[in-house]
Amino acid sequence: MLTEKDFITTSYKSIDAASFEWSAPSNIALVKYWGKKENQIPANPSISFTLNNCKTITKLDVIKKSETNSFSFDLLFEGKPKEDFKPKIQKFFERIEKYCPFLKEYHFKIDTQNTFPHSSGIASSASGMAALAMNIMSLEKAINPTISDEYFYSKASFLARLGSGSACRSIKGEVVVWGNHAEINGSSDLFGVEFSEIHPNFKNYQDTILLVDKGEKQVSSTVGHDLMHNHPYAERRFAQAHENLSKMKAILTSGNTAEFIKIVESEALTLHAMMMTSMPYFILMKPNTLEIINKIWKFRNETQIPVCFTLDAGANVHILYPENVSVKVLQFIQDELVDYCQNGQYICDQIGNGAKSN
Ligand code: DP6
What we know:
The chain is α+β, with helices and mostly antiparallel strands. 34% of the residues lie in helices and 23% in strands.
């Protein structure tokens, strides 16, 4: 079992220049991460489906430099310099320096873009930090070629976590668990692990993301997680996440879509209930979020099609359903839900299996 100390790189060679390119997907949590301790350690374990189409593509050009006092990088977003993203990257480098002590020896050009529309309200931090972490691990592999594949991916997830917690679930695997859990072998608070006992019912599961509100997030996830400190229901919620992950493990293995729906929807509403019962309190759903949820419930009752919703920390709705009902569900979305989306926009995605080298 890899520990924090294993991720501190001590011996490595030097290279003059190199270029890498990785894409990493977004992910959608089934059991939610909400609340964290020092150093990006989650307050409870979580599990997510890795997405396929919503991803960040990041190219990293690396050039050796002579001074080693500070981090040095240029940041391009969709080909143009993007100053406002730089503090986040600077902070990320500071957090991972202990584990990647070679970073100050190089100048970086980070060229990044997303496949999903900018300001769609879809969090790009998970895919963005995962793609950057993969590139940094490619550099580490170039200067330390003996590292194993297992180490490569585990450390990528470890680094991504230090950038953004949920990013550690965007590295490898269709379903990923992050956080210690008694019943998941190898699970760790430090990095995500692949959950592979998935019943065919969940293969190619679909996620259609309805863009209800594309505006800036009302509450940043950092502020959101902080609200769980001294939250009146925090301890019960963290215990519930452990219980729901036990149930989800059994559900994913046995293929029980009816039980899947119960846990997934309850987790989404619990996440929002935590925000509504914190101090200060927030309502991140919009009227159209509720309209959509009610329509989904009605459609499910009438058709018995196993379609359900989940939410992240915002108003957008993720609709999850098996591939074999996708024609009917997409027709339902077209007929009944598109009007509740901002500019009629939605994104069709499905389970994918993680970061890719381009
Ligand atoms: C609601 O991973 O964005 O999407 O660690 O502060 O970067 P930071 O938070 P972040 O939180 C995601 C929270 C969530 C639930 C989840 O993805 O599990």
